[in-house]
C-alpha cells in the first residue's frame, strides 16, 4: 500500500512544483524576485543602519547598543502569495576604554572579534597601523554583525577628535577623521599676591597651567623666584572652551597685566600673518628676550651668585659662579635660550650636566641633573626641556646649579638677562593688522579691570 503525502502549499524559491499552474508560477516568480531585491539591495535607511555608531562620550567602560532589526516589506495580498518576513542580521556597537597595559589584541579579544579581522584592519593603511599605539583613557567602539565580522571601528582620542574605520562594499576599510570644534568664550580673573603667585592664582580660580603661562609671558621682565613681593597683583583674560554646554578646558591667555613692586607690565597675544602666535606689549614690542630669566618654573633660590661663597661641602672659600635653584627631584629644566648643545655628560663634581652655546658670545650651564634629555650637537629652542632636577655630583640636595657666561666670563644669571636685547618687535608692515587684532582685547581687559580693582581696593 502506497503512502500518499498530503499536498503542501509551501513554495520553495527557485524550485516550483512540476504541475504548478502557469499563472500561479508567474506570480510566485515575481514575488521571489521582490524578496531577493528586498534582502540583497539595501535601501538608504538600511545602509545608514550599517554605519558604525559614534562613540558615546558618557559611556561606561563597556557599553553595548543594539540597532533595530530591518524588516523586508511584505508583498501585497492581492498577488495571492504570503511571503515570510526577512530580517537583516542584527548589528551591535561595543565601546571599550583602553586600560593601562592594554594592547589592540587585548581589546579585540574583549570585543570577541577575531585576530584575523584585526590584521585585516591593520593592513588597510598607515592610519590603521597607528591603532597599535593606544593610550590609556582612549575609547574604541567596535561595530560588529551577528557573525562577529567587524563592520567599523571608531577611536575616540579625546573629546574633540575621533578616527573612524568603516568597511566598504568591497570589504576594505576606509578611514576618516571627525573633528569637533568647541565653543570659546573670554573669561577674566584677577588677584593679589599675599604669599606666592601659585596661591594667589589658585585662589583667583586659575589652573596651574594658566599660572605657569602667565609667568612665562613675563619671564623676561620678572624673576618669579626673586622679584615677587606681597601686594603684587595681576589681571588676566583667557579663553574658556565648552562642548555641548560643558566646560572642557582653557584656551590661551588673550591679554594680561602684572604689577610688580609698583611697575605694571602688560601683554597681549597676537597671531601674525604667518599664523604664529606670540605676546607683545600694547605698543608691539616683543615680550620675549633672547633669554628667559630662570631655567625652571617658579622655585626657590637656595644660593646666589657669589665669587667668595663658603662651599657647603668643602667648607672653603670657593667662587659660586652661578645660581642654585632648590626644586623637587624630577622638576623639568628648560634651556633659557635658543642654541646648540656643546656638552652633555657626567663628571664627579658636576654630576649630570648640559652646556649650551647661544650664538658666538653666550654659554649657559646646567649641573646636578637627574636625567639629561639632550645630546651633544643637538639644536634646542628656548624653554625646551633639557633635563630634570637632581642631586648628582657634589650636591647636598636636589637643586639646579645654573651658570651664564658672556665671552667666556661668568656673569650673574639673575641680572644679566635684563641687559640683553629682546626679540624682534611687530614689523611696521603688520602694525595696522596688530592694532586691529589686539586693541579690542586690551579694551576688554581694561573694562574688566575697572570694577575688579575697585572691589579689590574696597576689600583692603
TrEMBL record:
Coiled coil: none
Cofactor(s), by name: Zn(2+)
Localization: Cell envelope
Domain Csd3-like second N-terminal: 189-307
Top-level taxon: Bacteria
Keywords in alphabetical order: Hydrolase, Metal-binding, Metalloprotease, Protease, Zinc
Record-annotated M23ase beta-sheet core domain positions: 319-413
InterPro entries: Cell_wall_metabolism_enzyme (IPR050570), Csd3_N2 (IPR045834), Dup_hybrid_motif (IPR011055), LysM_Opacity-associatedA (IPR007340), M23ase_b-sheet_dom (IPR016047)
Domain Opacity-associated protein A LysM-like: 95-174
Primary localization: other
Protein name, per record: Peptidoglycan DD-metalloendopeptidase family protein
Organism per entry: Microbulbifer variabilis
Amino acid at each position: 500500500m502506497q503512502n500518499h503525502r498530503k499536498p503542501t502549499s509551501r513554495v520553495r524559491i527557485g524550485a516550483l512544483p512540476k504541475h504548478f499552474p502557469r499563472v500561479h508560477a508567474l506570480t510566485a516568480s515575481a514575488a521571489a524576485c521582490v524578496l531577493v531585491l528586498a534582502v540583497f539591495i539595501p535601501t538608504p535607511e538600511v545602509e545608514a543602519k550599517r554605519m558604525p555608531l559614534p562613540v558615546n562620550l558618557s559611556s561606561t567602560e563597556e557599553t553595548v547598543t543594539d540597532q533595530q532589526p530591518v524588516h523586508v516589506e511584505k508583498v501585497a495580498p492581492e498577488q495571492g502569495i504570503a511571503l515570510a518576513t526577512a530580517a537583516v542580521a542584527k548589528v551591535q556597537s561595543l565601546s571599550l576604554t583602553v586600560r593601562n597595559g592594554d594592547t589592540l589584541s587585548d581589546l579585540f579579544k574583549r570585543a570577541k572579534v577575531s585576530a584575523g579581522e584585526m590584521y585585516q584592519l591593520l593592513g588597510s593603511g598607515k592610519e590603521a597601523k597607528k591603532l597599535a599605539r593606544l593610550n590609556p583613557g582612549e575609547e574604541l567602539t567596535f561595530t560588529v554583525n551577528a557573525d562577529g565580522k567587524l563592520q567599523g571601528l571608531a577611536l575616540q582620542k579625546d573629546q574633540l577628535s575621533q578616527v573612524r574605520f568603516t568597511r566598504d562594499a568591497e570589504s576594505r576599510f576606509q578611514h576618516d577623521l571627525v573633528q569637533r570644534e568647541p565653543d570659546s568664550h573670554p573669561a577674566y580673573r584677577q588677584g593679589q599676591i599675599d604669599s606666592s603667585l601659585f596661591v594667589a592664582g589658585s585662589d583667583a580660580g586659575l589652573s596651574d597651567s594658566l599660572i605657569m603661562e602667565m609667568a612665562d609671558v613675563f619671564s623676561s621682565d620678572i624673576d618669579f623666584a626673586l622679584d615677587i613681593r606681597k601686594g603684587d597683583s595681576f589681571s588676566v583674560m583667557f579663553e574658556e572652551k565648552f562642548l555641548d554646554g560643558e566646560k572642557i578646558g582653557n584656551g590661551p591667555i588673550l591679554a594680561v597685566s602684572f604689577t610688580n613692586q609698583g611697575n605694571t607690565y602688560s601683554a597681549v597675544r597676537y597671531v601674525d600673518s604667518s599664523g604664529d602666535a606670540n605676546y607683545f606689549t600694547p605698543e608691539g614690542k616683543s615680550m620675549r628676550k633672547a633669554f628667559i630669566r630662570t631655567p625652571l618654573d617658579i622655585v626657590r633660590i637656595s644660593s646666589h651668585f657669589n665669587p667668595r661663597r663658603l662651599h657647603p661641602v668643602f667648607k672653603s672659600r670657593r667662587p659660586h659662579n652661578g645660581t642654585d635653584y632648590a626644586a623637587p627631584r624630577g622638576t623639568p629644566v628648560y634651556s633659557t635660550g635658543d642654541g646648540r648643545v656643546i656638552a652633555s655628560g657626567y663628571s664627579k663634581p658636576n654630576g649630570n650636566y648640559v652646556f649650551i652655546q647661544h650664538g658666538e658670545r653666550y654659554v649657559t650651564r646646567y649641573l646636578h641633573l637627574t636625567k639629561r634629555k639632550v645630546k651633544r650637537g643637538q639644536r634646542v629652542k628656548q624653554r625646551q626641556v633639557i633635563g630634570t632636577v637632581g642631586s648628582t655630583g657634589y650636591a647636598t640636595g636636589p637643586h639646579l646649579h645654573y651658570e651664564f657666561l658672556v665671552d667666556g666670563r661668568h656673569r650673574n644669571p639673575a641680572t644679566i638677562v635684563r641687559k640683553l636685547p629682546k626679540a624682534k618687535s611687530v614689523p611696521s608692515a603688520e602694525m595696522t593688522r596688530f592694532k586691529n587684532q589686539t586693541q579690542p582685547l586690551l579694551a576688554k581687559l581694561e573694562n574688566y579691570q575697572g570694577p575688579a580693582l575697585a572691589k579689590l581696593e574696597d576689600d583692603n
